[in-house]
């Protein structure tokens, strides 16, 4: 029996959620979920169970993407820039379901490169994730930033994609990384290595950052800024190819200064039909909570004080890393010019 015939007899219901992919075997893996279990889970990366039952394998070859697929709405981000908070604000039952960091996209990025063979699986994964529990409830996907290695691929079908790009300044990024300690710094070091393998000249940039004879934390600061720069370059490349306007670039400062207003602007870009009063109420509630830790309180004043402490402690390292980045890596803004080495690596 062919894959298509098998799937015709065993259709994939919306309650069967793609949790993983095996690129070599050409299979997606599904588990039973509900709309409520997806919405209440901070991250759909497998660290927390949001499913029931055993994993079910389904052949990817038998999964077809409709000729007029639903729009793919994406919150793309560099990490540690308010994307989880924004995703939580935009989630409105009956109007929008926001999927936060589904593992299947991270697994796809880990197992593939920016190459033609990966593209069919990418579109199938996004189609599976974009299925609706109710007809009028749009789905928004906030991938992990590990997925950013594949972001330029989404520009192949710009009319089917509504993206926004979130980031922060180099100071904010360094401060957030070091505030998170060894675990967060280690993740960004791994991310830089992952991205560097997937862009032209990335290996040379990685070598410039990682092989420098510096004390470990100054070297780490360089690599953190490399991770940020590589992501900016991939975003810029996608923006140019998709012919998306630069107002789709959202800064962390915008979110902090006006969460409700920025979330409403993003909802328009993603073509969501949200209730503005509910969005503003949700923004006010979530501004007092920790977006990454369910039930934990959040204080903007306390966070500013923590960030000032981190900056004061590492100021020499951070400023040295910023000088290195300004000489070696691309500029901050998407589409802006930068050093020839950096831009050659990400703008091809």
Tell me what the structure shows.
This protein starts with a helix and ends with a helix. Helices cover 48% and strands 14% of the residues. The protein has a single domain (3-346), classed as Rossmann fold, CATH 3.40.50. It is built from 14 helices and 8 strands. The protein has 348 residues and is of the alpha/beta class. The strands form 2 sheets. Strands 5-6-4-7-8 form a 5-stranded parallel sheet, sandwiched between helices.
* Main CATH class: Alpha Beta
Give the amount of beta strand, in percent: 5-15%
State the distance separating the first and last CA atoms.
43 Å
How do the SSEs run, as a string of H and E?
A: HEEHEEHEHHEEHHHHEHHHHH
Average pLDDT level: 89
Count of the domains: 1
- Global outline: globular
CATH architecture: 3-Layer(aba) Sandwich
Unreliable stretches covering 5 or more consecutive residues: 335-348
Radius of gyration: 20 Å
CATH topology: Rossmann fold
Name the features.
single chain; 348 residues; alpha/beta; Rossmann fold; 5-stranded parallel beta sheet; 3-stranded antiparallel beta sheet; 14 helices; globular
What's the layout of helices and strands?
Layout (H helix, E strand, L loop, with lengths): L2 H7 L6 E7 L4 E6 L2 H5 L12 E8 L12 E6 L5 H8 L5 E5 L2 H9 L7 H11 L8 E5 L18 E7 L2 H10 L1 H16 L5 H9 L5 H27 L6 E3 H6 L1 H11 L6 H11 L13 H29 L11 H7 L2
Helix pairs in contact: 3-12, 6-9, 6-13, 7-8, 7-9, 8-9, 9-13, 9-14, 11-12
